[in-house]
């Protein structure tokens, strides 16, 4: 369905857990997140009902995210059950990749055709630093596992961080020469407890084009997401730029987000949330609640104008 500004909303992103096996410094505090006693994760039944309601309103694309979606117990079953809902045309996941060697085969068989895998550096020491304890080789094992089972295209999400990985822009772009992957640079967003980290480390994605002038824009008439795609001459893969800060893409926004604890976020960059569980208990159907969320999507975000710090951490929202 269309929102008040004529945008077709067909994409639901669901954070299915706020737990994670890493602690990326821009996403989560080191000690993890303490849950309030009344906070509860949406159950699989609730997630499935919500998706069915979304489909009745025109949603045809689902992304499972987190936290780390692969640490949620029963993930393969959840994927299978979502894949069986008539009307879902695209079912995807954003993951740090670490558990893909364990799950990729079953996930593919359950209907997950592609994944986005996060990777901010090719340097094992820096990887350990940014994730607080991760091992780089685990991510590459995850990428290899996804490839081996035929997930395609594999999209690598790279948060561009000043004085951390801007000296690796060339390496990331050159990775697409021989690998048929999409490397997507994402601008660092100031969110939650990690806003302090983001303060001096933001770098516009324009930097990528400045450093790699050989990148040529790709015209993609079937483009569905916010990434603008480029390619090196003769490269097998592509380079995407996702610019939520420098050039907001609000006029093309096609999504609503659901947090782990069942709050619908009409806009990523706003603290305004709709309490799915409470409204459902008060008698509203999931369809009515989703309609409210779609109708309350703002025209655009004001992240560049507001000094206000957003409260939620990314691991609860899912990116
Ligand atoms: N654990 C999974 C992963 O890392 O891919 C899924 C959840 S993670 C929150 C989803 C995406 O959000 C990742 O690509 C991550 O790099 C990105 N992300 C987290 N915090 C961010 C921030 N402050 N600014 C920009 N992107 C962020
Ligand atoms: Fe975990 Fe993903 Fe957040 Fe890193 S970005 S801490 S992997 S949820």
Note down, in words, how this protein is organized.
- It catalyses: GTP + AH2 + S-adenosyl-L-methionine = (8S)-3',8-cyclo-7,8-dihydroguanosine 5'-triphosphate + 5'-deoxyadenosine + L-methionine + A + H(+).
- It is an enzyme of class 4 (lyase).
- By secondary structure, this protein is an alpha/beta fold.
- It is built from 11 helices and 12 strands.
- The two termini are 23 Å apart.
- Bound molecules: S-adenosylmethionine (SAM) and iron/sulfur cluster.
In a few lines, what is going on in this structure?
This protein has 319 residues and is of the alpha/beta class.
- For this structure, the CATH topology is TIM Barrel
Using the CA coordinates, give the radius of gyration.
Answer: 19 Å
Overall shape: globular
CATH class: Alpha Beta
Helix content: 25-40%
Order of helices and strands: EHEHEHEHHEHEHHEEEEEEHHH
Q: What kind of sheet is the major sheet?
A: 12 strands, mixed
The fraction of residues in strands falls at 15-25%
Please give the number of β-strands: 12
Number of domains: 1
Low-confidence stretches: none
Terminal residue distance = 23 Å
Structural class: alpha/beta
Q: What is the correct CATH architecture? A: Alpha-Beta Barrel
Q: For the largest sheet, list the strands in their spatial order.
A: 7-8-9-6-5-4-3-2-1-10-11-12
Mean pLDDT: 93
User: Number of helical runs?
Assistant: 11
> CATH H-level name... which superfamily?
Aldolase class I
What binds here, in terms of ligands, is: S-adenosylmethionine, iron/sulfur cluster
Family: Belongs to the radical SAM superfamily. MoaA family.
Subunit structure: Monomer and homodimer.
Protein name: GTP 3',8-cyclase
Keywords: 4Fe-4S, GTP-binding, Iron, Iron-sulfur, Lyase, Metal-binding, Molybdenum cofactor biosynthesis, Nucleotide-binding, S-adenosyl-L-methionine
């Amino acid at each position: 369905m269309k929102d008040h500004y004529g945008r077709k909303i067909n994409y639901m992103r669901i954070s299915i857990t706020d737990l994670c096996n890493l602690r990326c410094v821009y996403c989560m505090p080191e000690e993890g997140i303490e849950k309030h006693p009344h906070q509860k994760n949406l159950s699989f039944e609730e997630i499935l009902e919500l998706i069915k309601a979304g489909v009745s309103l025109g949603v045809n694309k689902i992304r499972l995210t987190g936290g780390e979606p692969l640490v949620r117990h029963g993930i393969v079953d959840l994927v299978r059950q979502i894949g069986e809902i008539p009307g879902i045309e695209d079912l995807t996941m954003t993951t740090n990749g670490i558990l893909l060697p364990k799950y990729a085969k079953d996930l593919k068989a359950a209907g997950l055709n592609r994944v986005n895998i996060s990777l901010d550096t090719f340097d094992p020491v820096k990887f350990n630093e940014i994730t607080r304890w991760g091992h780089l080789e685990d991510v590459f094992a995850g990428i290899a596992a996804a490839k081996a089972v035929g997930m395609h295209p594999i999209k690598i999400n790279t948060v561009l961080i000043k004085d951390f990985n801007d000296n690796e822009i060339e390496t990331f772009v050159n990775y697409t020469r021989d690998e048929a992957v999409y490397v997507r640079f994402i601008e660092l967003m100031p969110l939650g407890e990690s806003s302090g980290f983001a303060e001096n480390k933001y770098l516009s994605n324009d930097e990528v084009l400045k450093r790699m002038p050989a990148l040529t824009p790709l015209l993609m008439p079937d483009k569905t997401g916010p990434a603008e795609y480029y390619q090196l001459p003769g490269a097998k893969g592509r380079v995407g730029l996702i610019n939520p800060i420098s050039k907001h893409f609000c006029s093309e926004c096609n999504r609503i987000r659901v947090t782990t604890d069942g709050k619908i976020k009409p806009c990523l960059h706003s603290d305004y949330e709709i309490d799915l569980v409470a409204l459902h208990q008060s008698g509203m159907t999931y369809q009515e609640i989703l309609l409210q969320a779609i109708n309350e999507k703002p025209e655009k975000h004001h992240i560049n104008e507001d000094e206000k710090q957003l409260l939620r951490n990314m691991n609860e929202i899912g990116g």
